[in-house]
Each structure stands twice: as structure tokens, then as C-alpha cells.
Queue: 4 jobs
Job 1
Amino acid sequence: MLTRSRPLAGDIAIPRTADVLAVRRAALWTLLAAKMLAGWGVRWDIQWHVLIGRDSFWIPPHLMTYAGVSLVVLVSFGVLLWETLAASAAGAGRGRGTIRLLGLTGTRGFHVAAWGISITVLAAPIDDLWHRLFGLDVTLWSPPHLMGFLGGLVNTVGCLLIARETYPAPSRARLAALVVAGAWFYGTLDRILEPAALVAYQHGGVRFHTYAILGALLLPLALVATARLSGRRWAPIALVVVLAAATLAGSQVARAGFAWLRPIPVVEEEIARDPASPIALAHEIARKNRLTPGAPAAFLALIALVPAAVMVGADPRRRPVAASVAWAGSLFIVHGVILARSPAFRSLVPGAGETVVALAITAGAAVLGGLAARRLADLVATRSPEKTRPVSAAA
């Protein structure tokens, strides 16, 4: 462990343990803030594409998104480079709690964060090439978009690791970092599920419940894992509340951006070229529901508190699979009722037989989701050292 601070040739100093911890903690909170900025950019980008159209690659939402991603890249790799240089200057190889990978020394959390965000960076040119080859139709489920989301998710797992590596177990700062990181993890997974509404609208039947089925498989990864890592039964509710607050703030940022820039819409031309595109369908659904296309419905974030409360009642810390199944059943009912009451989806409500089949698939997906979440939490817990006593830097 690096414990002294003295000047070396070339003005390189060996940092003390407290200095290393301070840098890692500052980097963690910078990463979480940058991820929120990127999330706001992605949310605004979706609204921009739906309301304005893809008029240029250099639209403000893209710039906001890439600013957040760039900051994540700089911080993630910057800490690895700093610790590598410090370890080299100390002549001690790698310190305790760090690993060396591809010539860079750092904790497992920063390695996961850095190499995860590399996937997102690699997805950007692939996405541009994808649009050049297949046109400007926008769907979140294109391979480069999913690749970008995957990188963000891996980076967020790195943040969960860093929180456990840099703060002692009783620390409130550690709890706060785990909840915020878990909220971003949950938000990214939930955003990936947004096209499920288009699947329900186009096909009905069992696929009317696509969101509940896919949500049962994916969303416990954030809800259950954070509850187990934090040791707090109420963590799922905290994640939903934090994400709802961030979504509301991001909506205000997008609204202010539209009011300031006043972009000229070209989306009608895109809809005319392809009336069956996801953008055209989003406009059709919004028109039937008398809503603004692309605008996030704030009440849906609050409705998500109902399944979260059910999960808390089942205790995801001790019974991750049972809690996931209970949560998924509640989500199935709540989301199904919301869709059934919506004018755009009212005529698509499936019959009893198809509903039972969809519910059975949802329950099966929830079992898999709960098992995967338990495994993820166990991996993060075993890959990060437990700090049970206060350290020299403020906790």
C-alpha cells in the first residue's frame, strides 16, 4: 500500500493512503454526476428524434450525451493512469487491493468502469456506420445502441464496486453512492425497455405484456442487487425515488433546451417516408392518448413505487428470487391496467388465456432475473474488499 508522500525525480510524488482514497472517492462522485449528465442527454435525444427528427449528428442532445460519456472516460482511465504512475514511482509494483491489466494498475472497480465505458465509446462509430448503411430510422434496439447501453451498465457495475472499495461498511457515503449508482443502473435498464410499448401496440396478445416480461428479467438486476449490496431492505424504493427525481430534472433541462434553441422540426418528412417507423408509431400512440410524443410520463415513475414496495415487503436481501417474483407479479398487474386504460391500447387487451400465458412467462423471467441479481450482487461483494473500520480520510 502506498503510505508516504515524498518528491521524486521528475516532480512525481508518492501519494499517501489517505490521498489515494480521496482521489478515488472524488472520482466516484464525478463518475455518478457524469452518468446523470449523459442520462439527461439520452432522454433529451429521444425527445429530439421524436419531436424534431434527426437533422444532424451534432444536435445538442448528442453533445450533452457525449460530454457525459467523455467525462466518464477521462475519470475512469485517469485514475488508472494516476495509480499506475504512482505505483511505478514508488517502485512497489501494484498496491494491495489493486490489479494490473494491459499495463494499467488500479482497483477492480476502476478497471470495470474504464473497460465498460470503452464499449460505449466503441459503439459510437458503429452507430454512425449503422445509420449510413441502414438509414436514420431510430430504434433503441439496434445493435450499436444496445452495445452502448451495455457499456454504460458495465461502467455502473464498476461504480458499485468502487463504492464498496473506497468507503467502510457503516458509512452513509457508501450507502448514498450505492443507491445513486443503483438508480442509474435501474434507469438504464428501464430505458432499454421503452420499445416494449411499440411491440405491445403492433402485436397485442401475449406481447401486450412485453414490458412486464422483459422487466421481470432485467430490472431485478438493479433492484435486488442494490438491496443486497447495501444491506437495506428499502433500497428498491430509494432507487425509484432517486431516478424519478433525476428524470424530472432531465425533463426540465430538455424543456429549457427546446425553448432556447427552437429547432425546426423535420420529423413529418421522416414519418411520410416511413409511416411504420418507430417514430411514426410513437406519434400515432401519443395522438390517440392525447400526449406529447416522446415526453416521459412523470406519473409512471411514481407508479413504479407500487411494485417496489411489494418487493420491499418480500425482502430482496434474504429472498431475492421470491421478492423478484412478487415484484414482477405486481408490475404485471399495474402496467397491464395502465395500458388497458389507455385509448391507444384499449382495443389490444388480450383475453384470459393469453394473459395467463403472459403471466406465467413473466413469473419464469422473474425467477431468472432474481437468480441473476443474486449472482451479480455476490460477484460485486466478493470482488470488493470490505472496509469495516473508518479510514484516515473522512467517511
Job 2
Amino acid sequence: MANSLLADIEAVWHSAGLPLPQTADVTVLRGPEIGLMMVRARAGGDGQLFNLGEMTVTRCSLSLGGELVGHGYVAGRSGRHAEFCALSDALAQSEPETETLQTEVLAPLAETLEARQREEVEKAAATRVDFFTLVRGEDE
């Protein structure tokens, strides 16, 4: 869900009929906060860890019905996106809502994300250039 576009999330969320972050039974424990996180990496995948740089992250925590607490972290500065992630985390802990969340929200978002990634791969493949070397007679 964190990798999906906010417009896609809102579209499937409304069609599923799930509660929105601003409804009465949702209590914001920690409103959307924007901050920085250090991104660490390894050279070659198995080398020493090093600090690659910082990235902007938005986080949010909320309570659903006073019982379920959800947390959401997203890359970037979208508070609304973090609220939806936190709400989906809380709903995933609720037995009656888990299946609705999985089938009507998460599955369509995964399909949309896969289609978008396939499209990017196809665009990149269309610009592929194959290089080759001609052998000149004097190089032999």
C-alpha cells in the first residue's frame, strides 16, 4: 500500500466502503509527521554498511474504535497517504474487516502496481540499444 499512488488508494477505498481516516470512530494518536530517515546500504550487497543519505518520510498512528492501533510510514510528504496506511494496519487487526481489506483494497492495489511496473519495464525495453564491435582486418 505504501508504494501505491494516493489516488489509487482513495479510489479502491471508497468502492470498498471502509471507514475513512476522518470518521468518528477513528482517533488520531500521532498525526501525520514529516521527518527524515537515514538510508543505509552495503557496497555490493555484502560489504560494510555505509550511510547512503537521508530521505523524507511521513508517519501516522491512529486508533480505530479505541481498541485497534495502526501505524503507517510512507516515503515522501503525504500525510493523507500515511493516514490510509495506518488505518489499513488497524483494519488488518480486525477479524471482520481483514478479508474485505485484503480482497477489495490490497489485491486491486497490488494488480495496479504490477501493471504500472510492467509498463515501465516495457518502456525501458523499447529504448534498449545493442552495441557490437566490428572486427577490423588490422586487429587480427
Job 3
Amino acid sequence: MQHKLAIVILNYNGAGFLKKFLPTVLLHSKGYHVVVADNASTDESVSLLQNRFPEVELIQLARNWGFAGGYNMALKQVSANYYLLLNSDVEVSSGWLEPMVKLLDGDAEIAACQPKIKAYHQPDCFEYAGASGGFLDFLGYPFCRGRLFDTLEEDRGQYDIARPIFWATGACMLLRAEKFWQLGGFDPDFFAHMEEIDLCWRMHAAGLAVWVVPQSVVYHVGGGTLAKENPRKTYLNFRNGLWMLIKNCEDGMAAKIGARMMLDWAAALQFISKGNFSAAQAILKSHIDTFKSVEKLHKKRQEIKKNRCYKAPLYQKLLVWEYFFRKRRYFSQLKF
């Protein structure tokens, strides 16, 4: 059966989150198809879904493919015009879907959008992974309307206007299925972290738009699969940041990679000064694995370059400089 929209939750050992948040998803998403794709969980997730949520379609994946590969595998089994990708640790609110669906219904050139993401444990504040829309500086550092580095702004309605953005968060992302597959879906080599930014960069290169719709609101716990301080998460963030830049950067790629690596080492030295040697080792490993992957990344870059029609709307300043040296802590202080 072809659905207009399918809500697809990728789950890995998230039984606690499913118990807590899936009933709210079902309550506020009546009339829409809900799917949970299980990434070979070892907890009670599958039995919980089978016994307590029989109305939810369950897709069982043979192993943990990560966020990128897991969604690619699962979405091949979902027939819908729109995919709503939703983390298991997200609480949705009444009327959360309609403004986003209306936006995509009205403009075929918008390939993806996200709602306003607020912090579940601090509901007056924006949440780290998306806030009110994602952006990228010219060295590939992501930031949000409402979040620069670790500074989270209080939501006072200052970013309530729907507008184009650079990237939409994978925590809650509405995608036009046709465009998703035309662009090859997520890059499964990323495994997790920044694959949605990489996808959105490819959308921009194809002349498509990405938006935020703040009239839709959800609340994100964050760190549901990997805690922020986990060395594996540090590794993936630094490695995938470099990979994304190598794949998608339109010009001056070598210089930007060199600058990015120097800043990475500054971050590593900061970790060492705080006694966090595992994080510094994760950065070193991310660089080693990037050098090992140059040939594969070059092939991906050539494929993207061959099909690129438009330049991506990057923030043409260095966020590190604006934040740490010019003391611009809020998105509204940045000059685009």
C-alpha cells in the first residue's frame, strides 16, 4: 500500500524510549502510518513492539547498520511519498506534522524540512541537534539557529519564522521520498552522525531546498544511542566532518581540509589538557582513517561534482573565529 506519509523510527536498544514516547507519537499522528525499524536490538525492543504496539509496522534488520545504513535498508521496505524520520527519544506535540506536510505539499522543490527542536529536559531551550534549523560554515562546522557550539538559547519566539536552512536534523526530518532516492539516500559509510548534513548538501547541489517549520514543535532527549562524551561519538563526528567536506566542498578543498585538521588538533590538545585522552585518541584515529579512505572519498566527490548544478549556501565566515574570538554566542549576532 502506498502511503502519503510514513513515520519511520529507527531503533537500537531503545525499549525505554519506545515505552515512553511511542504512545505520544501514535496519539498525535492519527491517520498516518507508523513504522519502527529495529537495528538488531539486544534488549526487549522487538517483544515490546509485538506485544504492546501491534498497530505499528515492525521491520527487523539482521544487524546494526547504524543510522545511515539502517534507514537506507528500512526505507526500501516502506512505500510512501514522504518519509518522516524520527528518533526514538523524541516527544512530539499536538499538530506537529501538519505544518511540515503543508510546506512540502505546496512546493515540489523543497526536498526536506524539520520542526523546531526543543530540549526535553529544558523545554524552554532549543536542543543541540537541530534547534530551529541547521547551518554550515565554509569549513564544514555545523551550527543552528538557536545553538552555536555548546551555547543553547532560550526559545523566546525569536526564530519562529519558517525559512530555508542548510540542513535538517536527522532527529526529526521530513523527506520527499523521490528526491531521497534520486540522490542515493544516506551515505552508509558514515554509519552515524552528519549523514543528514551530507544528504542536505547534496540536495543543495541538485538545486533543491531545505526548510525549518517552527510552527511544528518536538522535544528531543538527545544522546539516546551514544552519549556526548563517548569516544566513538567523538570519532564519528570528527571523521564524518572531514569526509563530508572532502565529498562536497565546491572549491579550495585541500586548503579547507588542512585548516580543519589543524583546528581538530587544537581540539585534541584541549582534550588532553583536561585529561580526556580517549577523545584525543578518537581524533587521531579519525584522521588516520580519513587518509586511508581518500581514494573512496575521491570517487564519491567526482560523482557529486559530475551532477552538481548549484553552489551550496554555506555561511562564508569561520564560526570558530566568530564564536571564540568575536564572542558572538547567538545566531542572531551572526552576519550572513
Job 4
Amino acid sequence: MINGKKVLALIPARGGSKGLPRKNILPLAGRPLLAWTVQAGLASAYVDRIIVSSEDREIIQTAEAWGAEAPFVRPQELAKDETTGMEVFLHALKEAGDGFDYLVLLQPTSPLRTGRDIDACLEKCEELNVPSCVSVCEARKSPFWMYKIDPRERLQPLINNVEFIPRRQDMPLIYSLNGAVYAARTGWLKKSGNYLAPETVGYVMPAERSVDIDSVLDLKLCEFILARESGK
């Protein structure tokens, strides 16, 4: 609870993953991938309840074993490739019951975010009086150096009408969504249908906590970061 407002944390974790099969429960430094996100939610000072939305029995059992709740089984029609995130969020809110002022989305593919990162997003919502805050990190590659290739194989700048910037140090800071934390007031989220809107503010996280696991290489990178932090 933050300033008298109740907080629900939702971990969406379906069983299907084409790029990295069974991704959400693959082992990472001695724990299932999903467990890292559950533990971050439990470490939050403000989260009142952590629930997992999944259609997969093994994922549900893993989530419960590590301290999350799984009060429902996600319907198969909400576990398809084309299912939108908002459909999953609204279903979870309905199943969890009324009374939550904030919904915090925690994707299991961001295992290095901490409870403090979750809390910082909620604090920004309260301190700045905004309905939504999402986590970002500095972009590794600037879009000012990105191009499209036209039918004649000529390079066309992705950002038009901007003079070429030859030095990286002279470029404006650019941030990208890192997928770690999405926090929003539930009433506003139901109306807007998206965590991202003109009112949304960003919470900047460092690159070493912003790894989003989508491949074996990402998993190995996380293992390296965790081993380095533990001194092994």
C-alpha cells in the first residue's frame, strides 16, 4: 500500500514461447526465471498482493512455490499469440476483485529488476500526481544513426529533417522501454487501455538491470551479471 492506496502486482506468464521454449521457468542461477520476478514483488514495500496469470499448470505450481498467488487459471482463449496484454490485465483485475488502486505489471522476462525499482515507479506516480509510470533505460543505439534502405538500396534516415550528428557525445539522450515495470492507476488504465499515454512518466533503470530475456544469449548475459554481483 502506498499513501493508503492498494497495489496489485500481476505477473503474466503463459506457457507458450516460440523463441525460447518454456522460457518462463527455465533455470537462471539456481532459480526458475519466474521466481526472480516473484521475489522482486515480495521485496516491494508497497505491493499488497502478487498474482500470476497463466494457463500452464507447471508455471502456476512454480509461482506458488516461490510465494506468488495463482487464484485462477487463465482461459486458453487469453493465452494465444494474438492475445493483447490489455485483455490479460482486465481479466486479472476482474478475477482478483475490486479494491486495488494500482496495477503493476511485472514481466517474468526481466529478472534483474528489484523491489526498489517497483517502488520507485509507484512513488513517481504519487509524487508527480500522474496515472502511469513505466521503466526505461538509455538506448544502446541512437535512432539518429539508424536508417532504412529504399527500393534502390539507398540509405534513408529513420528520423528525417535532422542534421547528421557525427559524435555520439553530441546526441540527445534517448530512452527505450525495458519491459521491467509498468505501474498505473487501475481506473485510468481501464479507460485508457494502455500503460503508455501522454501523461505517462519514465523511471530510468541502469543497463545491468534492464536485460529482457528473449534468447539463450540474453539468459547467459543474466547469468554473467548475477555471477559477477555474487563474486563468483
